[in-house]
Amino acid sequence: MIEVEGLTKRFVDRDAVSNVSFFVPEGEVLGFLGPNGAGKTTTMRMITGYLPATAGRVRVAGLDLAADPLGVRARIGYLPENIALYPEMRVEEYLRFRAAIEGVARADVRARLEEVSERCMLGDVRRQLIGTLSKGYRQRVGLAGALIHKPPVLILDEPTVGLDPRQIVKIRELIAELGRDHTVILSTHILPEVEQVCRRVLIIDGGTLVADGTPEQLRAGVSGATELDVEFEAPEAEARAALEALPGAAAVRSEGDGRYRVRAEGRADLRRAVFALAVERRWVMLGLRQTVPTLEDVFLRLTTRDAAGEAEAALEEAANA
Amino acid sequence: MRKTLALIGRELVAYFSSPLAYVILTAFLFVNGYVFWLVLSYLNSPSAPPMAAFKLLFGGTIFFWLMLLFVLPVITMRLLAEERRSGTLEVLLTSPVSEGQVVIAKFLAALVFYLFLWLPTVIYVAILARHSAIDPGPVLAGYLGIAMLGLLFLAIGIFTSALVRNQIVAAVFAFALLLVVFSLGLVENLTTTPWLKGALGYMNLWDHMDDFAKGLVDTRHLVYQGSLGVLFLFLATKALEASRGR
Q1: Which residues pair with A211 in a beta bridge?
Q2: Is the separation of the CB atoms in A216 and A295 below 8 Å?
Q3: CB contact set of A68 (below 8 Å; sequence gap of 6+)
Q4: How far is A91 from chain B (nearest CA, A)?
Q5: Tens-digit pLDDT profile for residues B102-158
Q6: Chain B closest-CA separation from residue A3 CA (Å)
Q7: CB contact under 8 A, B6 and A100
Q8: Using CA atoms, how far apart are residues A261 and A253, in angstroms rounded to an integer?
Q9: In chain A, how long is the greatest CA-to-CA distance?
Q10: SS3 content of chain B, % helix, strand, coil (to 5)
Q11: ipTM exceeding 0.95?
Q12: Which one of B3, B5, B245 has the shortest CB-CB distance to A45?
Protein backbone atom coordinates (compact mmCIF):
# COMPACT_ATOMS: atom_id res chain seq x y z
CA MET A 1 0.00 0.00 0.00
CA ILE A 2 2.75 2.40 0.95
CA GLU A 3 6.18 2.00 -0.61
CA VAL A 4 9.02 4.25 0.46
CA GLU A 5 12.34 3.94 -1.29
CA GLY A 6 15.57 5.71 -0.42
CA LEU A 7 13.74 8.72 0.98
CA THR A 8 16.14 11.50 1.91
CA LYS A 9 15.62 15.05 3.11
CA ARG A 10 18.59 17.34 3.31
CA PHE A 11 18.24 20.62 5.11
CA VAL A 12 20.96 23.18 4.62
CA ASP A 13 23.60 21.62 6.82
CA ARG A 14 22.40 18.13 7.67
CA ASP A 15 20.32 15.17 6.58
CA ALA A 16 17.10 15.16 8.58
CA VAL A 17 16.17 11.85 6.98
CA SER A 18 18.61 9.76 5.01
CA ASN A 19 17.90 6.86 2.74
CA VAL A 20 14.81 5.51 4.49
CA SER A 21 13.05 2.60 2.78
CA PHE A 22 10.10 0.53 3.95
CA PHE A 23 6.93 -1.08 2.73
CA VAL A 24 3.55 -1.15 4.43
CA PRO A 25 1.12 -3.79 3.14
CA GLU A 26 -2.59 -3.10 2.99
CA GLY A 27 -4.38 -3.24 6.33
CA GLU A 28 -1.31 -2.96 8.51
CA VAL A 29 -0.94 -0.59 11.43
CA LEU A 30 2.66 0.52 11.47
CA GLY A 31 4.17 2.21 14.50
CA PHE A 32 6.79 4.76 13.71
CA LEU A 33 9.01 5.22 16.71
CA GLY A 34 11.88 7.48 17.47
CA PRO A 35 13.09 10.07 19.94
CA ASN A 36 12.12 13.70 19.37
CA GLY A 37 13.90 15.13 16.36
CA ALA A 38 14.70 11.72 14.87
CA GLY A 39 12.97 12.54 11.58
CA LYS A 40 9.51 11.04 12.14
CA THR A 41 7.56 14.17 11.20
CA THR A 42 9.87 14.94 8.28
CA THR A 43 9.37 11.44 6.86
CA MET A 44 5.61 11.63 7.25
CA ARG A 45 5.48 15.07 5.66
CA MET A 46 7.38 13.72 2.67
CA ILE A 47 4.95 10.83 2.29
CA THR A 48 1.98 13.20 2.37
CA GLY A 49 3.66 15.41 -0.20
CA TYR A 50 3.76 18.44 2.08
CA LEU A 51 7.55 18.47 2.08
CA PRO A 52 9.40 17.78 -1.18
CA ALA A 53 11.99 15.02 -0.77
CA THR A 54 15.63 15.66 -1.68
CA ALA A 55 15.84 12.13 -3.08
CA GLY A 56 13.84 8.94 -3.08
CA ARG A 57 10.46 7.69 -4.18
CA VAL A 58 7.07 7.35 -2.52
CA ARG A 59 4.24 5.22 -3.89
CA VAL A 60 0.83 5.10 -2.27
CA ALA A 61 -1.88 2.74 -3.50
CA GLY A 62 0.11 2.17 -6.67
CA LEU A 63 0.43 5.87 -7.49
CA ASP A 64 3.77 7.64 -7.63
CA LEU A 65 3.84 10.79 -5.50
CA ALA A 66 6.07 12.68 -7.94
CA ALA A 67 3.95 11.80 -10.98
CA ASP A 68 0.49 12.22 -9.45
CA PRO A 69 0.70 14.32 -6.28
CA LEU A 70 -3.01 15.18 -6.21
CA GLY A 71 -3.98 11.52 -6.66
CA VAL A 72 -1.76 10.45 -3.78
CA ARG A 73 -3.01 13.27 -1.57
CA ALA A 74 -6.61 12.23 -2.27
CA ARG A 75 -5.83 8.74 -0.94
CA ILE A 76 -4.19 9.86 2.29
CA GLY A 77 -5.91 11.06 5.42
CA TYR A 78 -3.35 13.08 7.32
CA LEU A 79 -3.41 14.27 10.91
CA PRO A 80 -0.48 16.66 11.37
CA GLU A 81 1.46 16.86 14.60
CA ASN A 82 0.10 20.26 15.57
CA ILE A 83 -3.59 20.08 14.84
CA ALA A 84 -4.40 23.34 13.15
CA LEU A 85 -8.06 24.16 12.61
CA TYR A 86 -9.97 27.32 11.79
CA PRO A 87 -11.20 28.62 15.16
CA GLU A 88 -13.95 30.76 13.64
CA MET A 89 -15.70 27.80 12.00
CA ARG A 90 -18.22 25.46 13.54
CA VAL A 91 -17.31 21.77 13.69
CA GLU A 92 -19.83 20.69 11.11
CA GLU A 93 -19.02 23.62 8.85
CA TYR A 94 -15.35 22.68 9.00
CA LEU A 95 -16.02 19.04 8.18
CA ARG A 96 -18.19 20.06 5.22
CA PHE A 97 -15.33 22.27 4.04
CA ARG A 98 -12.87 19.40 4.40
CA ALA A 99 -15.26 17.09 2.54
CA ALA A 100 -15.43 19.55 -0.36
CA ILE A 101 -11.70 20.09 -0.74
CA GLU A 102 -10.95 16.39 -0.31
CA GLY A 103 -13.32 15.71 -3.17
CA VAL A 104 -16.19 13.88 -1.46
CA ALA A 105 -19.13 13.68 -3.87
CA ARG A 106 -21.88 16.12 -2.93
CA ALA A 107 -24.43 13.33 -2.49
CA ASP A 108 -22.19 11.48 -0.01
CA VAL A 109 -21.30 14.42 2.22
CA ARG A 110 -24.14 13.97 4.69
CA ALA A 111 -23.51 10.26 5.15
CA ARG A 112 -19.77 10.75 5.57
CA LEU A 113 -20.40 13.53 8.06
CA GLU A 114 -22.63 11.27 10.13
CA GLU A 115 -20.12 8.46 10.03
CA VAL A 116 -17.02 10.40 11.04
CA SER A 117 -18.92 12.35 13.71
CA GLU A 118 -20.02 9.09 15.24
CA ARG A 119 -16.64 7.40 14.95
CA CYS A 120 -14.82 10.34 16.48
CA MET A 121 -17.54 10.93 19.09
CA LEU A 122 -18.34 14.46 18.00
CA GLY A 123 -22.10 14.18 18.41
CA ASP A 124 -22.48 16.80 21.10
CA VAL A 125 -20.15 19.47 19.66
CA ARG A 126 -21.16 19.53 16.03
CA ARG A 127 -22.67 23.00 16.28
CA GLN A 128 -19.89 24.41 18.43
CA LEU A 129 -17.20 26.87 17.32
CA ILE A 130 -13.87 25.09 16.96
CA GLY A 131 -12.13 27.88 18.89
CA THR A 132 -14.12 26.97 22.00
CA LEU A 133 -13.28 23.25 21.96
CA SER A 134 -10.92 21.50 24.35
CA LYS A 135 -7.69 20.00 23.06
CA GLY A 136 -9.14 16.49 23.09
CA TYR A 137 -12.11 17.49 21.00
CA ARG A 138 -9.92 19.42 18.59
CA GLN A 139 -7.81 16.32 18.12
CA ARG A 140 -10.95 14.37 17.30
CA VAL A 141 -12.15 17.04 14.88
CA GLY A 142 -8.78 16.86 13.13
CA LEU A 143 -9.05 13.10 12.94
CA ALA A 144 -12.63 13.33 11.64
CA GLY A 145 -11.34 15.72 8.96
CA ALA A 146 -8.64 13.23 8.00
CA LEU A 147 -11.24 10.45 7.69
CA ILE A 148 -13.93 12.38 5.86
CA HIS A 149 -12.99 11.19 2.36
CA LYS A 150 -12.63 7.52 3.37
CA PRO A 151 -8.92 7.43 2.58
CA PRO A 152 -7.35 3.98 2.28
CA VAL A 153 -4.23 5.29 4.02
CA LEU A 154 -4.08 7.16 7.32
CA ILE A 155 -1.00 8.99 8.50
CA LEU A 156 -1.21 10.13 12.09
CA ASP A 157 1.59 12.19 13.57
CA GLU A 158 1.62 11.80 17.35
CA PRO A 159 -2.16 11.68 17.70
CA THR A 160 -2.20 11.36 21.49
CA VAL A 161 0.18 14.17 22.43
CA GLY A 162 -1.29 16.62 24.91
CA LEU A 163 -4.37 14.57 25.78
CA ASP A 164 -5.43 13.49 29.24
CA PRO A 165 -5.13 9.77 30.08
CA ARG A 166 -8.80 9.02 29.44
CA GLN A 167 -8.74 10.72 26.07
CA ILE A 168 -5.53 8.87 25.19
CA VAL A 169 -7.26 5.56 25.85
CA LYS A 170 -10.22 6.61 23.70
CA ILE A 171 -8.08 7.77 20.81
CA ARG A 172 -6.04 4.56 20.94
CA GLU A 173 -9.17 2.46 20.83
CA LEU A 174 -10.34 4.50 17.87
CA ILE A 175 -7.02 4.02 16.05
CA ALA A 176 -7.06 0.29 16.72
CA GLU A 177 -10.57 0.17 15.27
CA LEU A 178 -9.53 2.24 12.25
CA GLY A 179 -6.71 -0.22 11.68
CA ARG A 180 -9.27 -2.81 10.66
CA ASP A 181 -10.20 -1.05 7.44
CA HIS A 182 -7.31 1.36 6.85
CA THR A 183 -3.58 1.12 6.33
CA VAL A 184 -2.17 3.25 9.11
CA ILE A 185 1.19 4.83 9.89
CA LEU A 186 1.23 6.10 13.44
CA SER A 187 4.15 8.04 14.84
CA THR A 188 4.70 8.30 18.53
CA HIS A 189 7.32 8.23 21.21
CA ILE A 190 5.01 6.56 23.70
CA LEU A 191 5.96 2.87 23.75
CA PRO A 192 2.93 1.21 25.35
CA GLU A 193 0.89 2.85 22.62
CA VAL A 194 2.81 0.96 19.98
CA GLU A 195 2.51 -2.37 21.77
CA GLN A 196 -1.24 -1.89 22.05
CA VAL A 197 -2.03 -0.67 18.59
CA CYS A 198 0.64 -1.69 16.11
CA ARG A 199 1.42 -4.97 14.46
CA ARG A 200 4.74 -3.73 13.17
CA VAL A 201 7.26 -1.19 14.37
CA LEU A 202 9.86 0.94 12.67
CA ILE A 203 12.41 2.69 14.82
CA ILE A 204 14.13 5.72 13.38
CA ASP A 205 17.04 7.51 14.96
CA GLY A 206 19.13 10.36 13.62
CA GLY A 207 17.29 10.15 10.30
CA THR A 208 18.01 6.47 9.57
CA LEU A 209 16.00 3.34 10.25
CA VAL A 210 17.53 1.27 13.02
CA ALA A 211 14.88 -1.44 13.40
CA ASP A 212 11.94 -2.92 11.52
CA GLY A 213 9.76 -5.80 12.75
CA THR A 214 6.95 -6.90 15.03
CA PRO A 215 7.31 -5.93 18.69
CA GLU A 216 8.10 -9.62 19.47
CA GLN A 217 10.79 -9.82 16.82
CA LEU A 218 12.41 -6.65 18.08
CA ARG A 219 12.40 -7.93 21.63
CA ALA A 220 13.92 -11.21 20.53
CA GLY A 221 16.62 -9.41 18.61
CA VAL A 222 17.86 -7.66 21.68
CA SER A 223 20.21 -9.75 23.83
CA GLY A 224 18.41 -8.89 27.02
CA ALA A 225 18.16 -11.76 29.50
CA THR A 226 15.03 -12.89 31.28
CA GLU A 227 14.91 -11.96 34.92
CA LEU A 228 12.91 -13.41 37.78
CA ASP A 229 11.79 -11.66 40.95
CA VAL A 230 11.25 -14.15 43.78
CA GLU A 231 10.04 -13.59 47.32
CA PHE A 232 10.46 -16.42 49.88
CA GLU A 233 10.10 -16.88 53.59
CA ALA A 234 13.44 -18.67 54.00
CA PRO A 235 16.87 -18.31 55.60
CA GLU A 236 18.75 -15.95 53.31
CA ALA A 237 22.05 -17.79 52.83
CA GLU A 238 20.33 -21.09 52.21
CA ALA A 239 17.85 -19.65 49.71
CA ARG A 240 20.55 -17.82 47.85
CA ALA A 241 22.71 -20.91 47.53
CA ALA A 242 19.77 -22.98 46.39
CA LEU A 243 18.80 -20.44 43.72
CA GLU A 244 22.36 -20.21 42.45
CA ALA A 245 22.48 -23.99 42.21
CA LEU A 246 19.45 -24.07 39.86
CA PRO A 247 20.38 -25.11 36.33
CA GLY A 248 20.01 -22.12 34.02
CA ALA A 249 20.51 -19.43 36.68
CA ALA A 250 23.29 -17.04 35.81
CA ALA A 251 23.32 -14.72 38.80
CA VAL A 252 21.38 -14.16 41.99
CA ARG A 253 21.11 -10.93 43.86
CA SER A 254 19.57 -10.71 47.30
CA GLU A 255 17.47 -7.60 47.71
CA GLY A 256 16.61 -8.05 51.40
CA ASP A 257 13.38 -9.05 53.15
CA GLY A 258 13.46 -12.41 51.43
CA ARG A 259 13.45 -10.92 47.91
CA TYR A 260 15.84 -12.19 45.26
CA ARG A 261 16.45 -11.26 41.69
CA VAL A 262 17.60 -14.15 39.52
CA ARG A 263 19.04 -13.53 36.10
CA ALA A 264 18.64 -16.48 33.77
CA GLU A 265 21.10 -17.64 31.17
CA GLY A 266 19.64 -16.30 27.93
CA ARG A 267 15.91 -16.80 27.76
CA ALA A 268 15.59 -19.77 30.10
CA ASP A 269 12.31 -19.91 32.02
CA LEU A 270 13.12 -20.67 35.66
CA ARG A 271 9.64 -20.29 37.15
CA ARG A 272 8.89 -24.03 37.39
CA ALA A 273 12.27 -24.84 38.94
CA VAL A 274 11.88 -22.08 41.53
CA PHE A 275 8.38 -23.24 42.40
CA ALA A 276 9.55 -26.85 42.77
CA LEU A 277 12.41 -25.68 44.97
CA ALA A 278 10.04 -23.84 47.29
CA VAL A 279 7.77 -26.88 47.56
CA GLU A 280 10.69 -29.22 48.23
CA ARG A 281 12.14 -27.09 51.00
CA ARG A 282 8.68 -26.14 52.32
CA TRP A 283 9.37 -22.38 51.97
CA VAL A 284 6.38 -20.12 51.73
CA MET A 285 6.51 -18.36 48.39
CA LEU A 286 5.14 -14.82 48.50
CA GLY A 287 5.86 -13.71 44.98
CA LEU A 288 7.19 -14.82 41.63
CA ARG A 289 7.36 -12.60 38.59
CA GLN A 290 9.25 -12.97 35.34
CA THR A 291 10.33 -9.91 33.36
CA VAL A 292 11.27 -10.16 29.70
CA PRO A 293 12.94 -7.24 27.91
CA THR A 294 10.31 -4.67 26.96
CA LEU A 295 10.05 -2.66 23.81
CA GLU A 296 11.33 0.15 25.96
CA ASP A 297 14.61 -1.71 26.45
CA VAL A 298 14.83 -2.30 22.72
CA PHE A 299 14.11 1.33 22.00
CA LEU A 300 16.63 2.64 24.51
CA ARG A 301 19.29 0.24 23.33
CA LEU A 302 18.80 1.15 19.69
CA THR A 303 18.50 4.88 20.05
CA THR A 304 21.05 5.65 22.78
CA ARG A 305 23.95 3.46 21.73
CA ASP A 306 24.95 5.80 18.94
CA ALA A 307 24.78 8.89 21.08
CA ALA A 308 26.91 7.22 23.74
CA GLY A 309 29.40 6.08 21.09
CA GLU A 310 29.61 9.54 19.65
CA ALA A 311 30.19 11.08 23.06
CA GLU A 312 32.97 8.60 23.69
CA ALA A 313 34.56 9.35 20.34
CA ALA A 314 34.35 13.06 21.06
CA LEU A 315 36.01 12.57 24.43
CA GLU A 316 38.79 10.51 22.86
CA GLU A 317 39.30 13.14 20.23
CA ALA A 318 39.49 15.82 22.88
CA ALA A 319 42.00 13.75 24.83
CA ASN A 320 44.18 13.26 21.76
CA ALA A 321 44.14 16.91 20.76
CA MET B 1 -14.63 24.10 -9.32
CA ARG B 2 -16.43 22.82 -6.24
CA LYS B 3 -13.16 22.79 -4.32
CA THR B 4 -12.48 26.40 -5.34
CA LEU B 5 -15.99 27.42 -4.27
CA ALA B 6 -15.49 25.70 -0.92
CA LEU B 7 -12.22 27.57 -0.43
CA ILE B 8 -13.86 30.89 -1.34
CA GLY B 9 -16.75 30.16 1.02
CA ARG B 10 -14.42 29.41 3.90
CA GLU B 11 -12.50 32.60 3.27
CA LEU B 12 -15.68 34.68 3.31
CA VAL B 13 -16.71 33.06 6.59
CA ALA B 14 -13.30 34.06 7.95
CA TYR B 15 -13.73 37.65 6.72
CA PHE B 16 -17.15 38.21 8.18
CA SER B 17 -16.42 36.52 11.48
CA SER B 18 -13.39 38.68 12.24
CA PRO B 19 -13.73 42.08 13.91
CA LEU B 20 -11.19 43.47 11.49
CA ALA B 21 -13.68 43.18 8.64
CA TYR B 22 -16.15 45.39 10.46
CA VAL B 23 -13.49 47.90 11.40
CA ILE B 24 -12.47 48.11 7.74
CA LEU B 25 -16.10 48.41 6.63
CA THR B 26 -16.78 51.20 9.12
CA ALA B 27 -13.64 53.13 8.30
CA PHE B 28 -14.29 52.76 4.59
CA LEU B 29 -17.86 53.98 4.97
CA PHE B 30 -16.78 56.89 7.13
CA VAL B 31 -14.10 58.11 4.74
CA ASN B 32 -16.33 57.68 1.71
CA GLY B 33 -19.13 59.59 3.42
CA TYR B 34 -16.75 62.37 4.34
CA VAL B 35 -15.43 62.61 0.78
CA PHE B 36 -18.97 62.58 -0.59
CA TRP B 37 -19.87 65.48 1.70
CA LEU B 38 -16.72 67.39 0.73
CA VAL B 39 -17.35 66.90 -2.96
CA LEU B 40 -20.98 67.99 -2.71
CA SER B 41 -20.17 71.12 -0.70
CA TYR B 42 -17.44 71.99 -3.17
CA LEU B 43 -19.67 71.51 -6.22
CA ASN B 44 -22.52 73.45 -4.56
CA SER B 45 -20.43 76.56 -4.15
CA PRO B 46 -21.29 79.04 -6.93
CA SER B 47 -17.68 79.44 -8.02
CA ALA B 48 -17.08 75.74 -8.65
CA PRO B 49 -16.64 74.64 -12.26
CA PRO B 50 -19.44 72.45 -13.66
CA MET B 51 -18.30 68.87 -13.17
CA ALA B 52 -19.73 65.39 -12.55
CA ALA B 53 -19.63 64.49 -8.85
CA PHE B 54 -18.56 60.95 -9.58
CA LYS B 55 -15.49 62.07 -11.41
CA LEU B 56 -14.31 63.49 -8.10
CA LEU B 57 -15.59 60.62 -6.00
CA PHE B 58 -13.91 57.94 -8.08
CA GLY B 59 -10.21 58.68 -7.94
CA GLY B 60 -10.48 62.44 -8.15
CA THR B 61 -9.21 63.07 -4.63
CA ILE B 62 -6.19 61.89 -2.69
CA PHE B 63 -8.53 60.32 -0.12
CA PHE B 64 -9.53 57.66 -2.61
CA TRP B 65 -5.92 56.63 -3.16
CA LEU B 66 -4.84 56.86 0.45
CA MET B 67 -7.69 54.60 1.39
CA LEU B 68 -6.93 51.98 -1.23
CA LEU B 69 -3.22 52.00 -0.44
CA PHE B 70 -3.84 51.53 3.27
CA VAL B 71 -6.92 49.33 3.35
CA LEU B 72 -6.18 46.77 0.66
CA PRO B 73 -3.01 45.37 2.29
CA VAL B 74 -5.09 44.89 5.43
CA ILE B 75 -7.66 42.91 3.46
CA THR B 76 -5.06 40.56 2.02
CA MET B 77 -2.46 40.32 4.77
CA ARG B 78 -4.16 37.42 6.57
CA LEU B 79 -4.88 35.23 3.57
CA LEU B 80 -1.79 33.01 3.34
CA ALA B 81 0.46 34.31 6.12
CA GLU B 82 -2.02 33.32 8.82
CA GLU B 83 -2.56 29.85 7.34
CA ARG B 84 1.17 29.32 7.41
CA ARG B 85 1.56 30.65 10.96
CA SER B 86 -1.27 28.59 12.41
CA GLY B 87 -0.35 25.46 10.47
CA THR B 88 -3.64 25.08 8.59
CA LEU B 89 -1.63 25.45 5.40
CA GLU B 90 -0.31 21.93 6.02
CA VAL B 91 -3.84 20.55 5.83
CA LEU B 92 -4.59 22.60 2.73
CA LEU B 93 -1.44 21.56 0.89
CA THR B 94 -1.86 17.87 1.71
CA SER B 95 -5.41 17.79 0.40
CA PRO B 96 -5.98 17.31 -3.31
CA VAL B 97 -6.04 20.99 -4.23
CA SER B 98 -3.29 22.75 -6.15
CA GLU B 99 -1.44 25.86 -5.02
CA GLY B 100 -2.96 27.73 -7.96
CA GLN B 101 -6.46 26.83 -6.79
CA VAL B 102 -5.67 28.06 -3.29
CA VAL B 103 -4.32 31.38 -4.56
CA ILE B 104 -7.22 31.96 -6.98
CA ALA B 105 -9.80 31.14 -4.32
CA LYS B 106 -8.23 33.49 -1.79
CA PHE B 107 -7.97 36.20 -4.41
CA LEU B 108 -11.61 35.87 -5.45
CA ALA B 109 -12.76 35.94 -1.83
CA ALA B 110 -10.74 39.11 -1.23
CA LEU B 111 -12.21 40.63 -4.38
CA VAL B 112 -15.74 39.83 -3.22
CA PHE B 113 -15.03 41.46 0.13
CA TYR B 114 -13.52 44.49 -1.60
CA LEU B 115 -16.51 44.94 -3.87
CA PHE B 116 -18.75 44.55 -0.83
CA LEU B 117 -16.91 47.53 0.67
CA TRP B 118 -17.94 49.61 -2.32
CA LEU B 119 -21.54 48.43 -2.29
CA PRO B 120 -22.81 51.20 0.03
CA THR B 121 -21.59 53.84 -2.43
CA VAL B 122 -24.46 52.80 -4.70
CA ILE B 123 -26.59 54.83 -2.26
CA TYR B 124 -24.69 57.96 -3.34
CA VAL B 125 -25.62 57.24 -6.92
CA ALA B 126 -29.25 56.94 -5.86
CA ILE B 127 -29.11 60.19 -3.84
CA LEU B 128 -27.55 62.12 -6.71
CA ALA B 129 -29.97 60.61 -9.19
CA ARG B 130 -32.88 62.03 -7.17
CA HIS B 131 -31.58 65.57 -7.45
CA SER B 132 -29.97 65.71 -10.85
CA ALA B 133 -29.64 63.79 -14.05
CA ILE B 134 -26.89 61.13 -13.97
CA ASP B 135 -25.09 59.72 -16.97
CA PRO B 136 -24.92 55.97 -16.22
CA GLY B 137 -21.96 55.33 -18.59
CA PRO B 138 -19.23 57.07 -16.57
CA VAL B 139 -20.62 55.71 -13.31
CA LEU B 140 -20.46 52.12 -14.55
CA ALA B 141 -17.04 52.68 -16.09
CA GLY B 142 -15.94 54.17 -12.76
CA TYR B 143 -16.99 51.04 -10.92
CA LEU B 144 -15.12 48.98 -13.50
CA GLY B 145 -12.02 51.07 -12.82
CA ILE B 146 -12.46 50.48 -9.10
CA ALA B 147 -12.76 46.73 -9.67
CA MET B 148 -9.61 46.74 -11.83
CA LEU B 149 -7.63 48.60 -9.16
CA GLY B 150 -8.89 46.07 -6.63
CA LEU B 151 -7.74 43.22 -8.85
CA LEU B 152 -4.23 44.64 -9.14
CA PHE B 153 -3.79 45.73 -5.52
CA LEU B 154 -5.26 42.55 -4.03
CA ALA B 155 -3.05 40.38 -6.24
CA ILE B 156 -0.01 42.26 -4.94
CA GLY B 157 -1.24 41.79 -1.36
CA ILE B 158 -1.70 38.06 -1.82
CA PHE B 159 1.79 37.81 -3.22
CA THR B 160 3.33 39.37 -0.11
CA SER B 161 1.08 37.26 2.13
CA ALA B 162 2.45 34.16 0.39
CA LEU B 163 6.01 35.15 1.24
CA VAL B 164 5.88 35.51 5.02
CA ARG B 165 4.19 34.05 8.07
CA ASN B 166 3.53 37.32 9.87
CA GLN B 167 0.42 39.26 8.83
CA ILE B 168 1.82 42.65 9.78
CA VAL B 169 4.97 42.07 7.77
CA ALA B 170 2.82 41.00 4.83
CA ALA B 171 0.74 44.19 5.11
CA VAL B 172 3.74 46.51 5.35
CA PHE B 173 5.47 44.80 2.45
CA ALA B 174 2.28 45.00 0.37
CA PHE B 175 1.91 48.69 1.21
CA ALA B 176 5.48 49.35 0.04
CA LEU B 177 4.91 47.46 -3.21
CA LEU B 178 1.60 49.23 -3.84
CA LEU B 179 3.31 52.57 -3.25
CA VAL B 180 5.92 51.70 -5.89
CA VAL B 181 3.31 50.59 -8.43
CA PHE B 182 1.16 53.64 -7.69
CA SER B 183 3.98 56.18 -7.79
CA LEU B 184 5.50 54.84 -11.04
CA GLY B 185 2.88 56.85 -12.87
CA LEU B 186 3.38 59.96 -10.75
CA VAL B 187 7.12 59.95 -11.51
CA GLU B 188 6.04 60.71 -15.07
CA ASN B 189 5.95 64.38 -14.16
CA LEU B 190 9.50 64.36 -12.83
CA THR B 191 11.20 63.18 -16.01
CA THR B 192 11.81 64.94 -19.30
CA THR B 193 13.18 61.99 -21.28
CA PRO B 194 10.43 61.48 -23.87
CA TRP B 195 10.45 57.64 -24.07
CA LEU B 196 10.60 57.27 -20.30
CA LYS B 197 7.83 59.81 -19.88
CA GLY B 198 5.73 57.84 -22.35
CA ALA B 199 6.39 54.53 -20.66
CA LEU B 200 5.65 55.86 -17.19
CA GLY B 201 2.54 57.61 -18.48
CA TYR B 202 1.28 54.25 -19.65
CA MET B 203 1.57 53.06 -16.05
CA ASN B 204 -0.11 56.07 -14.44
CA LEU B 205 -2.90 54.55 -12.37
CA TRP B 206 -4.31 57.94 -11.40
CA ASP B 207 -4.75 58.83 -15.08
CA HIS B 208 -6.28 55.41 -15.73
CA MET B 209 -8.82 55.95 -13.00
CA ASP B 210 -9.59 59.45 -14.32
CA ASP B 211 -10.31 57.96 -17.72
CA PHE B 212 -12.60 55.31 -16.26
CA ALA B 213 -14.45 57.94 -14.21
CA LYS B 214 -14.90 59.99 -17.39
CA GLY B 215 -16.57 56.96 -18.94
CA LEU B 216 -13.57 56.12 -21.08
CA VAL B 217 -12.86 52.38 -20.99
CA ASP B 218 -9.41 52.16 -22.52
CA THR B 219 -8.24 48.61 -23.31
CA ARG B 220 -4.65 49.61 -22.64
CA HIS B 221 -5.54 50.36 -19.03
CA LEU B 222 -7.41 47.08 -18.72
CA VAL B 223 -4.49 45.16 -20.19
CA TYR B 224 -1.88 46.87 -18.00
CA GLN B 225 -3.74 46.41 -14.72
CA GLY B 226 -5.08 42.97 -15.60
CA SER B 227 -1.77 41.52 -16.74
CA LEU B 228 0.14 42.97 -13.80
CA GLY B 229 -2.47 41.48 -11.46
CA VAL B 230 -2.20 38.07 -13.11
CA LEU B 231 1.59 38.26 -12.89
CA PHE B 232 1.42 38.79 -9.12
CA LEU B 233 -1.08 35.95 -8.71
CA PHE B 234 1.33 33.73 -10.64
CA LEU B 235 4.21 34.85 -8.42
CA ALA B 236 2.08 34.15 -5.34
CA THR B 237 1.47 30.60 -6.60
CA LYS B 238 5.18 30.09 -7.18
CA ALA B 239 6.00 31.50 -3.74
CA LEU B 240 3.50 29.12 -2.18
CA GLU B 241 4.99 26.16 -4.04
CA ALA B 242 8.50 27.12 -3.01
CA SER B 243 7.50 27.52 0.63
CA ARG B 244 6.14 24.00 1.11
CA GLY B 245 7.04 22.68 4.49
CA ARG B 246 8.61 25.89 5.66
Answers
A1: A203
A2: no
A3: none
A4: 13
A5: 999 999 999 999 999 999 888 888 888 888 888 888 889 999 999 999 999 999 999
A6: 18
A7: yes
A8: 5
A9: 79
A10: 85, 0, 15
A11: no
A12: B245
